[in-house]
Each structure stands twice: as C-alpha cells, then as structure tokens.
Design goal:
The structure holds two protein chains of two kinds. By secondary structure, chain A is α/β, with parallel strands linked by helices. Chain A has twelve helices and seven strands. In chain A, the strands form two sheets. In chain A, strands 1-2-3-7-6 form a five-stranded parallel sheet, sandwiched between helices. Chain A has a two-stranded antiparallel sheet with strand order 4-5. Chain A is globular. Chain A starts with 29 loop residues before the first helix and ends in an 8-residue tail after the last helix. Chain B folds into two domains: 9-193, Rossmann fold (3-Layer(aba) Sandwich), CATH 3.40.50; 205-332, Rossmann fold (3-Layer(aba) Sandwich). In chain B, helix 7 links the parallel strand 6 (152-154) and strand 7 (176-181). Chain B has twelve helices and 14 strands. Chain B is an alpha/beta fold. The chains are: A alpha/beta, B alpha/beta. At the A-B interface, helix 11 and helix 12 of A face helix 3, helix 11 and helix 12 of B. Chain B: Its EC number is 1.2.4.-.
Amino acid sequence: MSTLQHDPDDRVQVLDEDGEVVGDVPDLSEDDLVGMYRHMRLARHFDQRAVSLQRQGRMGTYPPLSGQEGAQIGSVYALEEDDWMFPSYREHGGALVRGVGLKQTLLYWMGHEEGNKIPAEANVFPVAVPIATQIPHATGAAWASRLQGEAKAFICYFGDGATSEGDFHEGLNFAGVFDAPAVFFCNNNQWAISVPRERQTASETIAQKAGAYGIEGVQVDGMDPLAVYKVTKQAVEKAKNPGEDELRPTLIEAVQYRFGAHTTADDPTVYRDDDEVERWKAKDPIPRLEAYLRGEGILDDERVDEITEEVEGAVADAIKEAEAVTRPEPEEIFAHVFADMPEHVREQRDAFEALREKYGDEAFLRE
Amino acid sequence: MATQQETETQNLTLVQAVRDGLYTEMQRDDDVLVMGEDVGKNGGVFRATEGLYDEFGGDRVVDTPLAESGIVGTAIGMAAYGLKPVPEIQFQGFIYPAFDQIVSHAARLRTRSRGRYTCPMVIRAPYGGGIRAPEHHSESKEAFFAHEAGLKVVIPSTPYDTKGLLISAIRDPDPVMFFEPKLIYRAFRGEVPEDDYTVPIGEAAVRREGTDISVFTYGAMTRPTMDAAEHLAEDGVDVEVVDLRTVSPLDRDTIVESFKKTGRAAVVHEAPKSGGLAGEITAIIQEEALLYQEAPVERITGFDTPFPLYALEDYYLPSAARVEAGIRDAMEF
C-alpha cells in the first residue's frame, strides 16, 4: 500500500520531533539530504533577515515563513526539473530551490516590478496574493500539459484559509474531472492571520476534502521534511504515471505552524497563546533534520559551521544586490500592460514625463 | 446638512471614526452585526473593529472563514432575513470573489422580488494607494460599483463624515458600498460627536469656496487637492474644492451649482482615468451646464495601467503637483 493510500486521518511521519526515525526513510542521496538541510537553513536565515529589513524600514510588508521550511523544501525536492510550481505568497523558500533567487524575492517585497519577473529558466508562476486564486491556474496548466502529451507534474501551494475559497473547490473539482496532473499542497499552518483552522472548516482534516473530488488526500507532518518529500514524490509520480483506475491529482495537507506573524503587519500575540507557539516550536523542522543527519554521520559540527557561513553570506549578498537597485523609472508603470502600448496610455506616459521634466522628481515623491 | 446635535465630541482618526460608527449603531440596534476576516479577536487588520468583539461577543462580531463570496452571500441572506450585517472585505482588492453576489444579488434583490425582499447591508472595504502595501492592496475600483444600479457608493474623507455616513449607510434600506481611504486612516484627527448622528448619503460638501474653477474629488485625494488649491491661491487662482463624499448617486445639484459659478472644472481621483467617475462628472456638466463652460474638464487621475508595486506608487497617485498642473491647464485654456 502506498503512502498516499493511508487513511487521511493517519498523518505520515518519517522523523519524530527529536529526529528519530519512525517511518520508512525515502531514498535520497547524501547530497540531496545535505542540500535540503542547507536550503532550509537558507530559507530560515533569509526569513529572519527579511523581517529585520522590514522593521528597519528597508522593505515593505513581508510574509514570514519560519516553521514552514520542512514543507516547502521537502516538497520541491520531490519535483523534477521540468515540473512546475504555482506558489501563494509565502513560498520563497521553495521558489528559491526552483530558480527564483533571493534578490528577486527581496525586490518583490521592496515594491519593484522587476521582482515579479520570474527568470525564464524557472518553471514557477508569479506570486498569487489573492487567496486561492492560483489553484485553478495550476489545474489549467496541468490540464494543458496533459492535452499536449507531456508528462509533467504541477504543484500548487496554498494555505488552510484558502480551502474556504470557491477557487479551491473549483480548482480541485476541475482537476478531478479532467484528470489534471496536479499536486495540491496545502500548507496548513493553523492560522489564517488571526482565524484558527477550526474556523475555516468543520471537517476533521483538510486532506479528507479530496474524497469529495474523487481524488486522493493525504495528511503529512509538514514539519518533517522527509515525510513531506516522501508523499510529494509519490503524488508527483502518480500525476505522471497513474495506476489503473487511479486519478492523477492529489491533495496533500501538510500540518505545520508559522512561528511568526502572518505578515509583518500583524501581531500574533493578540490572537494566539505563547504556549501554543512553544509547543509547535518543539517540532521545528530544521533541528529535526539536523539531528537525523548528524546521527547518520552525514553532518558534523564542521559541516554545519560551513553551511552557516555559506547561508549568511548568500543572504547578505542578496540583500546588498537588492538594495543597490535604484528606484525604477515611471516607464515601468506603463510597460507590459499590453503587447503593444495603446495610444491613450502612451499619451498618459508622455504627459507625465513632461510634467516630471518640468517640476522634477521631488514634486511627485512623498517623504 | 449634517444633523449634528449638541453633544460631547472626541478627537478621532478616520479609522477610529469607523469603529465609533459601528459601536454606536451596534449599541443602538441589536440587529446590526459585523462579519469578515480577522474582525473579531484581532479587531480588524486596520483596527477598525477593535474592542467590538469583547463588547458585543462572537455572534455579532464574527470571524468568518476566508471566503469573500461566502461573507457577502451569507450577509445577503441575513439582511433579507431581518438582520443588518456590515461585512468587511479586508482590502478592496480582494472583493472580486464577492462581485457576483454584490452585483447579481445585493444590488437587485429588491428589484427582482418587486420589493418583497430587500438587502439592507453595508459592505466596508479599505481602498486606495499610498501606504507602501503589497500587490493587490492599493487599488481604487469604486467605478465598478458606481456602474451598478442598485448600489450606493460612499467614500468619506474626514472622521466626522465617516461616522455620520456610516450610520446613514447602516440605516439605509438598501445595500451601500462603504469604501474607506486607508491612506488617511490615521493621517489626521477630527472632532467626532460621541452620540449618534447622520451625514446624508448623496450630498457633497464644499471644502473650500472659490470662484475661478471647481475641483471635484473624494476620499484620500481631497488632501492633495486642498494643498494644490492653497498653493494656487498664492498665485491668485481661487479654487473651489468639492468633496463628493458619495460617488453613487452623485450630488448633481452641488456639482452643477458650483460649475455654473466658476465655468471651469477638474476632477481628481486615484482610480484609472478611462471609465472612471471623472467621465461621469464631465457628462453631468455637459448635460446641465454646457453654456457655462469655458474650458475642457481636466481629468487628474491614476493612469490606465494596473496599480504598480509600491516603489512606483508615488508617480501613479495624483500628487498636489499633478493636481496643480491640471488646474493650471484648465485655467489657461
């Protein structure tokens, strides 16, 4: 029986909170295991620095991901080169692995249009801020890929709150009906800003909703990167090569916790207890994987120190590069609205440039 | 004509006036309830419902699942069934899942049922740019709703008007879209009566009397417009500033009366130019006061582009400098 066919209530786990093996360890090379660890460390350090940049007024509102690295990194490691990723707005850790660099992510949250330009070689859709709206897109792209005879998987990320939106239902329903090779990955981090998971649905689990669409659902310990890798890998394989009488799509509910705020604009102490946060912090995916890798003799102090240094350097470089980017020209507002700029838009641009020429930038910029 | 009574006043910001308006009406009328994402324990992402959960409890200050269509759709059912829901959509940019419910049902339940069913509710949403917010958090899309018959669309610009208009909206027998200019949620304070009072929907306010040109605006753009007017006064240009306060239905009488006095006009809004309210106001002037017109009506607006990410938003939003340049164009015609 595959992992995916577990009872939805039976949460898949490979490592317990102390990093002890409690399930079948997926087949991963030492390089991949260290790579996962390094990417999780990178995502965590980036996150801490990004929050600090926002606090210092060097960046706008930012959605932290600390606590969710296991789900993000574990799942993208299960993708193959040609597979696609449809993120929400919190998946910068996963996006990094898939080719969207840290500088790019910083620029987006620093309000630069360029931050939204996904590198040509990355199979990643732009960040989707309106909740759940990316789910039907992933279904549609997956469906199109299958119509074109490809064998690729399309993973779509969203939160527990998103499962309340109509787009969640419609996206999964279409995926079932048209047998789209999609993996719907719910980062159930327990809180949609201040609203707890119990307020989103009376269902016992989110995974069980898959049954209503005729597709498989599985609940996984989202703070166990190896368990996440394992279930995602199986879902990706099934999307490409389903067994007889099997539909391609899967709904994965990765149970996890965001350690910080929804975004830097809210204060979680208003709506949740410190005790709860501490309980979940005991499940932190990073020390968990580290303990396992140390136990296996794959990591030691020296290697961990090297990784620490490397991670700090990479984040510092990205911040330096992003902050070196100057304020974009107003031209950027008008570019790319259509393939060809309409005459009236061109006129608006030219009229504004004439005013800017006449009065100077300071007449238009606040602060 | 506000029906201000002799009463104690408090010095409030605009967002505090929203909260005070809700509080006042909820105390007065047990049928009023607020619902939405994070409006309860968290007190709203902008603190517009702060303390209401503790005061009125979870049945009247309801944290809902994250679903705008669900929020508005259930509010329509509640309104038709005798309650007076005030759903909050966290940002105007997230209202679109609810668009079908708003235009297909809230706006026309009365018409469709020949008056048998009605939909007395107020949909609140912060709108507009200028706060360095992420993507989809800065749009100004009041024209979508002004285009829909059966909806009233209110956009206050002062704390006093905010409370008075919100109370009017809650007491209104039909659905009201109540868009709050979040750029000025905390920009300044104003005296707000502690008691309940109303500011009528559909009446504009002349913020500055002038004789040379009429400038029609609303919401957060009232401030740069007033700044431009004061600056132009130094050059002897006497600008009349009209704060529309309600963009649907427009106060045609005040618009036409002001224009007949000045013969020149400009409209300032941060929403895109094409299909925006400025076109509607220009048409009213054409229909009602063509022979008074001495210059084309200037439209000083956002561009016909998506609202940019925040590094460029200052260029997108009409600034006092752009308003002033537009007014000068109209004056020099």
